[in-house]
Design a protein that fits this description.
- By secondary structure, the chain is of the alpha+beta class.
- The chain folds into 3 domains: about 100 residues, no CATH class; about 55 residues; about 230 residues, no CATH class.
- It is built from 15 helices and 12 strands.
- The strands form 4 sheets. Strands 8-7-6-9-10 form a 5-stranded mixed sheet, sandwiched between helices. Strands 1-4-3 form a 3-stranded antiparallel sheet. Strands 2-5 form a two-stranded antiparallel sheet.
- A hairpin with a 5-residue loop joins strand 7 and strand 8.
- Helix 4 crosses helix 14 and helix 5 packs parallel to helix 6.
Length: about 425
């Protein structure tokens, strides 16, 4: 049974909502169990270690002083179990130390609060109003986050974002890059109402936020500034493939900065653009026809489905057919890359899905944010989201692309010189 003294909720009944009380009670029990399980696991790991007189070397040693942690359901008072190494002194560098993952020593706010505060900023809530806003969301006890404390947090986020913007990229390499311009509803202080975003896939298959800045979505100048800034900080090697929508500004800038990178147009954006040029009665059928193109198993089959669509719609709906046909090569570029990656490469979804939450959590407020503050707040939100980004399927194929291995219809092309000779017919 968990130790009930490990976690104690402050001022039970501060919330009038019975459902909240139930949730808090459940959270209390789960957290208590988790803390005890973590300590028990640590002790079990070192159970074989003994002191010179035969006693267990690593043992429980009471609790650390109680501290408050602000969570999404209000503040919680925490008592962290303490562990003692009987065979080493406090200053002994070889002393076995317990470093809790659930309740780090200096933790004062849960990750949900770290995410909530940038959201409130993007909603236009001023520093002085944070205590009132948090009290309404989390309960009266949340008023402990004062304006001065919030101000220090904001300054810290601004510093973190500035450091990230100037980080050295000379040791980084990205096989794929997704680019998009995201319009937030939060008002900025000038005309640059768009955030330009680039996410990259490392050779290990992990997705990372590579760069983002404020700008105009269609502006080649703003995209060029962002790409050149990445190069100046050491990102010299071109990605193998870049994925974006049809924004001409990005492709013009990318062609100048990384001319050797292959280009892939986003099928989600292209489908929406084509369907917008058709009457509603034609859209369901046309959507199925477009799916037959990008879902085809081979490039030849996709080309055939492509030709069929253009032929079917060109006579009556010339604009829709032209909208699709003008980007034919860029829409089918993914066939020259590993099949395991196709679902990642056909769209800018890595950006869209991440910023959907950010976009929906911002509103147009009466006031407006400075661009510097808005970017820092969005950076904090994306930084948190990045930890849950999925690794690319088939990540073992990525080093092959770096080495110049070619793929056709998603399969590795084996050079003729390395093929096994065919057995002569008897």
């Amino acid at each position: 049974m968990p130790n009930d003294n490990v976690v104690r909720l402050i001022q039970p009944g501060a919330f009038d909502d019975q459902l909240t009380e139930v949730l808090r009670s459940g959270a209390r029990a789960l957290l208590a169990q988790a803390v005890e399980a973590e300590v028990a696991g640590f002790l079990a790991k070192h159970a074989d270690l003994k002191t010179e007189d035969g006693r267990a070397r690593v043992v429980r040693h009471g609790h650390l002083p109680e501290r408050e942690v602000m969570t999404g359901i209000g503040p919680v008072a925490v008592r962290q179990p303490r562990v003692r190494d009987r065979a080493a002194g406090a200053d002994d560098p070889g002393r076995i130390r317990f470093s809790p993952a659930i309740l780090p020593p200096y933790m004062r706010r849960s990750k949900s609060i770290e995410t909530l505060l940038p959201i409130l900023y993007l909603k236009g809530i001023s520093t002085g109003d944070f205590s009132e806003a948090l009290a309404a969301l989390l309960g009266k006890e949340a008023a402990g986050l004062s304006a001065s404390a919030i101000g220090r947090l904001k300054d810290g986020w601004l510093d973190e974002h500035a450091a990230w913007q100037h980080r050295d990229l000379s040791a980084r390499r990205y096989v794929y890059m997704w680019a998009d311009g995201i319009h937030l509803e939060a008002r900025l202080e000038d005309e640059k109402q768009c955030i330009l975003v680039i996410i990259g896939a490392t050779p290990e298959g992990r997705k990372e936020l590579v760069g983002f800045t404020d700008g105009a979505r269609e502006s080649a100048h703003d995209w060029r500034e962002l790409l050149l800034d990445l190069k100046r900080r050491g990102l010299d090697q071109s990605p193998e493939l870049m994925i974006a929508d049809g924004a001409l500004g990005f492709w013009k800038a990318a062609g100048e900065v990384w001319p050797k990178a292959a280009e892939q147009r986003c099928w989600v954006h292209k489908t929406a653009n084509v369907l917008a040029k058709l009457p509603k009665s034609q859209q369901p059928k046309a959507k199925r026809a477009l799916q037959e193109i990008w879902m085809a198993e081979t490039k030849a089959a996709a080309e055939a489905a492509f030709d069929a669509f253009v032929e079917s719609y060109a006579l009556k709906y010339e604009k829709a057919a032209d909208c699709l046909d003008k980007d034919r090569d860029a829409l089918l570029a993914f066939y020259d890359f590993p099949a395991e990656h196709w679902k990642h490469l056909r769209t800018t979804n890595p950006i869209e899905s991440t910023f959907a939450t950010v976009r929906h959590r911002t509103i147009r407020s009466k006031g407006c944010l400075s661009n510097k503050t808005a970017l820092a707040m969005v950076f904090k939100l994306v930084e948190g989201a990045q930890k849950s980004w999925r690794r690319l399927d088939g990540h073992n194929q990525l080093p092959k692309l770096i080495l110049g291995v070619k793929f056709a219809d998603g399969l590795e092309v084996v050079p003729k010189s390395t093929r096994q000779p065919e057995t002569a017919a008897a």
